[in-house]
Amino acid sequence: MDFELNKEQLEIQKAVKAFCKGEFDKELAYELDDKHEFPMKLFKKAADLGFIGICFPEEYSGQGLGCIENTIVVEELCRGDSTIGTALALSYFASECILHFGSPEMKARLLPGVAEGKMLSAGAFTEPDHGSDITRMDTTAVRDGDEWVINGTKVFITNGGLAGFFTVLVQTDPDCVPSHKGISMILVESDRKGVSTTDVGKKMGIRSTSTSEVVFKEVRVPAANLIGVEGRGFYQVLQFFDESRITIAAQALGIAECAYDRALAYVKERKQFGKRLAEFQVTQHKIADMHTKIELAKLMTYKAAWNFDQGRIDPVLTSMAKMYAARTAVEVADEAIQLLGGYGYITEYEVERIYRDAKITEIYEGTKEIQKNTIAGQLLGKMK
Prior knowledge:
By secondary structure, the chain is α+β, with helices and mostly antiparallel strands.
């Protein structure tokens, strides 16, 4: 086994670090957080540097690289700043559904725009009355000649108010038993008549990312907008989750490092009782614990990314990586606040914002409880 990044991967890591150092600014992060504003200019710059859609083939303006390279980009963006980094890292969310299951026409029409920073994408999966349960959809799509007619409501949709298109989970066969076998995935462009979005309002964290309710009212799209195979939407989204959970694990890993970096710098400078905080054994133990958790999260996240690049789908590994990295982000950010004491509770010192950004990683893309269900279900198998 080789635990080292290769030359190309190290160059990518170096480039993202340089981008963050040159473009990310604490005051900008405060402003974006306060105004609930997406960093559109930085999105375009990141795309110009090849950081958006790095896994897309070159013919779709990507770099044709793998999950490990994407993990490097996401980790470093979120390590640079939890707020700005998260917004950029999730700007192309669910476009992978088009990449893996879409028609050649869909890929050629949509993916270059995402990779070039011309539009964001969104996955419309979660519903108000179902939450993490995606085995049945209240959002329906009914075939009418050469069109699908879509009706329903989705909630907590990342990039919902900014996306150029949605990949939407819909019930195409309401009578199917079990119901998940009647779910399909359909592409809906955001400018279609009958599509409307409403921002969910003020959030605890990731405030520079648009999160919206999306309503589809008698929305008509061509029959060719079906993504993949009719009735296979549930299975397609599960495959997507096994990739996207690695992305969220990388996000959480970067956020943990973001908090750790600030805390480490602080304890090396701050003096109490005549000596630096870093000289106290209790501080040293906290730093040791934080770094150990981060290293463990990194090993699991990169193993999951490597495994995915080998062409293997392992829900246990991706769920473990996402669950543990998310827990690490929350625990490390919490400890960072504790190390800074009263200053940690003040906006100027960043760690309170990082903590707010960290918590979402335990909730979206499947809560930590859902991850445990997935892990246990795979390990125990079906029990009579």
